[in-house]
């Protein structure tokens, strides 16, 4: 795989407004075909060149995925579609998907993950198996990201720990070294910075040095966030939402991740060796509100 250059980032004092703005610079955002279809003009709401992750839920036709990718790429937004191993039936299907993305939408990036279903629909059950096929390299993909779980993943570590997930990340880092792949870890969304810091420290202590992009839920109703958090297995940081839910005055206004991003910016500035590089927005309350929040915070800061 081709190795690209990473863009630099301006330095700023820990906890400062400039540090928050710098941390939001270059944020990415996640969409699905049905949510993307509701946006008339992505260029009106996203900074030029914003990376857009394209989530692939089981049952979504690959033609819809590719059409959405083609639209976004044509508008100047590099697209990173999900490749969930457990919904890919076999190698032939994987090749077909990769070839369609590459040939019809000029996609060169992929988020390779196990997927949100408990049982595989075909011969793959892990992201490592998809990577081992060599098909992403064969079709000239330049960036391959993998999933991270700061608060654990009980589908992989039923005891609530991190052992199996950490072993998988070590394998992926070795894969990056063997193939010269440009890789990063993009995490599940969280609501508290402390677990992220502790998890990143654990990774670095284990010799895992892949860059980390932290998942953050964009502005949304509290009830919506709690629903998604429970469904996605968000762990200890869910208490932030539960505490907020006890304050009736806060139930009336959308939750915004401003405090969380400020905390993450401080961690990034205080401990740059952790490799926490970017924010990845999950627009659980809508694409436009999330994009507007990120743009507004950058202007304000």
Give an account of the 3D structure.
With 301 residues, this protein is α/β, with parallel strands linked by helices. It has a single domain (20-300), classed as TIM Barrel. It has helices at residues 17-24, 33-36, 62-74, 91-105, 127-132, 135-138, 163-179, 193-205, 222-231, 238-245, 258-270, 287-300, and strands at 28-31, 52-54, 79-84, 109-113, 143-148, 182-190, 212-217, 276-282. It has an 8-stranded parallel β-barrel with strand order 1-2-3-4-5-6-7-8, surrounded by 5 helices. Strand 3 (79-84), helix 4 (91-105) and strand 4 (109-113) form a beta-alpha-beta unit. The longest helix has 17 residues, at 163-179. It is globular. The N and C termini lie far apart (37 Å). Residues 1-15 have low confidence and may be disordered.
List the keywords.
globular; disordered N terminus; single chain; 42% helix; 301 residues; TIM Barrel; alpha/beta; 12 helices; eight-stranded parallel barrel
In short:
With 301 residues, this protein is an alpha/beta fold. The chain is 42% helix and 15% strand.
List the helices and strands and how they pair.
Elements: H1 17-24, E1 28-31, H2 33-36, E2 52-54, H3 62-74, E3 79-84, H4 91-105, E4 109-113, H5 127-132, H6 135-138, E5 143-148, H7 163-179, E6 182-190, H8 193-205, E7 212-217, H9 222-231, H10 238-245, H11 258-270, E8 276-282, H12 287-300
Parallel strand pairs: 1-2, 1-8, 2-3, 3-4, 4-5, 5-6, 6-7, 7-8
Helix pairs in contact: 1-11, 1-12, 3-4, 9-10
């Amino acid at each position: 795989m081709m190795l690209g250059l990473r863009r630099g980032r301006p330095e700023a004092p820990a906890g400062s407004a400039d540090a928050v703005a710098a941390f939001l610079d270059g944020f990415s955002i996640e969409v699905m075909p049905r949510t993307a279809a509701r946006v008339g003009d992505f260029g009106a709401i996203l900074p030029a060149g914003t990376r857009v992750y394209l989530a692939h839920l089981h049952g979504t036709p690959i033609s819809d995925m590719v059409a959405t990718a083609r639209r976004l790429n044509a508008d100047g937004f590099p697209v990173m579609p999900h490749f969930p191993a457990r919904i890919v039936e076999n190698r032939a299907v994987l090749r077909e998907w990769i070839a369609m993305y590459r040939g019809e939408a000029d996609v060169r990036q992929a988020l390779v993950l196990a997927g949100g279903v408990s049982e595989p629909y075909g011969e793959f059950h892990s992201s490592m198996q998809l990577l081992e096929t060599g098909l992403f390299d064969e079709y000239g993909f330049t960036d391959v990201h993998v999933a991270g779980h700061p608060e654990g993943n009980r589908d992989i570590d039923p005891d609530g720990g991190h052992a199996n997930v950490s072993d998988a990340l070590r394998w992926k880092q070795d894969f990056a070294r063997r193939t010269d792949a440009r890789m990063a870890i993009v995490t599940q969304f969280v609501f508290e910075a402390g677990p992220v810091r502790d998890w990143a420290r654990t990774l670095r202590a284990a010799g895992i040095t892949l860059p980390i992009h932290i998942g953050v839920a964009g502005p949304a109703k509290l009830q919506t966030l709690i629903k998604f958090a429970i469904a996605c297995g968000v762990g200890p940081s869910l208490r932030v939402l539960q505490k907020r839910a006890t304050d009736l005055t806060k139930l009336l206004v959308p939750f915004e991740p401003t405090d969380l991003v400020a905390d993450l910016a401080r961690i990034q500035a205080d401990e740059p060796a952790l490799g926490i590089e970017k924010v990845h927005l999950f627009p659980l309350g809508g694409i436009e509100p999330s994009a507007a929040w990120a743009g507004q915070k950058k202007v304000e800061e």
